[in-house]
Amino acid sequence: MARFYYIFLICFLASRAFAVEPYEILNDAKLEDRARNLSSNIRCLVCQNENIDSSESEFAKDLRLFIREQLVEGRTDDEIEEFLVSKYGTYILFKPVFAGYNIFLYLFGPFIFIFSFIVILIVFFKSKKGNEACDQQKK
Amino acid sequence: MVSELGHFFLISAFCLNLGLIANCILIRSALAEYVSFFDKLESLMLTFLAISFSLLILSFINSDFSVKLVANNSHLLKPFLYKVAGAWGNHEGSMLLWVLILSVYLFLFQASSRDYSKVLVRNIILVQLSTIALFLFYLLVLSNPFERLEFPPLNGQDLNPILQDVLLVAHPPILYLGYLGLSIPFSIAVGFLLTNDRNLNIVSLLRFWSLVPFVFLTLGILLGSIWAYYELGWGGWWFWDPVENVSLLPWLINLALIHSILILERRNSLLNWAILLSIIGFSFSMIGTFIVRSGLITSVHAFANDPSRGLFILLIIFLAIASSLLIYITKRSNHKNFMKLNFASKELWIIVQNLTLLVIATIVFLGTIWPFIIEAMFDEQVSVGEPFYEVSLTPFVVIFAFMLPIVSKIRWKGKNFNNLRTTIGLIFISIALSASAFIWKDFKFLTFIGLFLSSWVCLGSILEFTSSFKSQLNFIDSLKRLPVFNSRMIGRTCAHFGFGLLIFGVTAVTSWETEDIRNVEVGESFYVQSYQIVFKGIDYSVEKNFKKVSGSFEVLNNNELVGTLLPEKRLYPSRNEVTTEASIKPTFSNDFYMVLGNKIDENAWVVRTYIKPFISFIWIGVILIALGGFVSLLSFYKYKTLKA
Q1: For a Cys-Cys bond, which of A85, B91, B183, B191 suits B124, CB 3.0-4.6 Å?
Q2: Would you list the domain boundaries of chain B?
């Protein structure tokens, strides 16, 4: 843990905030936009919860350059992400792929919402019926 | 000697605490004189803890490096303010502060609630005392802040330089006031369950003590966010960092609690639900501490990377949460009292709003612990970060915001939606307003949704405010009942309006931010949007505990000076670390944000400039939300004076 902490210190503190260097930026604005978009989903593996866009580590820099190279060569965003996952594992993506056990992560919230919503409605109609029955009894 | 005294007082406080707990359990029908003696003992415990904490601060001020904590977290060259703040800028010290604030709340609660049923108050105090005991025990056994070193060093290791900041001096205490303020609703809930009288009314108690932590929690989160904005160097203000998430969780639950109390107050229903939310709220505060402090996460907040401590904290928290839930399950009232819910009633839709908040909290919580679950179960590593939260939370935030004006306008026990006509009309105005923004900007669907929601929420809250005194019969009467005198009404409008502004700020910043990165030579000028920026010069200087390089830039709009930016790079020799200090020029519509990057050659530097539109709306919105909570609290003051 201590070693990790030092790597983090070096990466996170010593050199934050000069992430993307001017020479890295592509001339084609559309490709650069795509590169930015991709980078925001890719984790700097030697840093603390940072994407490669805002990290200054050598690792992040290499990946930024790699992504831009691939984009210039005409690869799609998905191809590049797939390649990175095959090389570094799923840990590198900030947005877990919608597959396997991650489906649970994505659908749990909506499921709870819909499920509880139905429960509330059931209770609502039940209470209505109960109240109506009550009212009739009173009459 | 100072440190031993501190330790002594800490132990004394613990003994007193145990004695008080025994008192609470053993003596149920206390005599009046006995109770006043009991009260004094409680203030004595608070005093002991306060003395103990002051003595710790004193050790920091004196730079007594024979105390291990001081040696690890202070430095001779550190400015006075940060020496003091060093006392809570570490694990042991902050745990002491944690216990101290718990007992401050105990004291405040006791001082403010003499007229409630004695048994109830005793039980609430008992729960609070037990919580304090758990954490005091942990403090004394595993993280003694007063531990001495056998061979004291000549100088300390210093506090992490990016934490040396005025905002961060205030951030932990205020956030703790929020986190631990939630302990009182928790104690009220559990104390109420322990009291066997189900006819006691705890509504106003709960309402008061859930609003207090709300204000502090909101402000505490805001301070952390503003700090991240100007300190972390690229102007982000929320990172979905696990540490931020765990501070958001109790806030969301607390928000749900505050709104469910409204139903409790009006319809005397959903008591169990409010009690459960109170328990969950403080549980999340504690789980947050565990996640932050256990070393599961390495971040600027993780002071203790000691597994045994993590395990112990986990045990404490498990004990507290499990026992309170057990009490909840066995003691909650089983009285099946379905309140009459109409489809067009406020009650029903507040419940749905509550549900939405809970789902948001669930997603945030699941996202935060997901990497740990996957690692434990499948031995694989996944990351869950900003893009995930954006995708999965946006629909629910949209649902929540869209419902807000409707739910707050709809009538209690309402039978139809007739009074909503004007509110529904606002939808069209909001659509028109938000669409008009795209005369200047490119159309983006999410931006449109964000703009629509913000104007809808803002207009809705204003409409509600104004219509509340339209319904009165004559003018004089309406003046008398003007909402200006109704602090709850003002508080609500204020908070809801603030939420609208917050949505606007978030939408504007995420959609229309401009970034510019380039090499600039001294004397050169360049354009970002329509603003001209001139690099005036570079300056080297030496401060008390760091050396710095600062650039000087002028921002011009049509040859008129908007402001001067002075971004810095600092070298802290005591830790051999370099930090960057962004320079920000806030104006009404834009923040100019500049960071000095690497030196290219004698004259040229990498310069990063951001223009962040309307980011101040985020801060103002959140401040209004906190202010809303505060103004709502004033209603209690008025209530009391009216009574007297």
Answers
A1: B191
A2: 1-164, 167-334+341-355, 386-512+618-643, 514-615
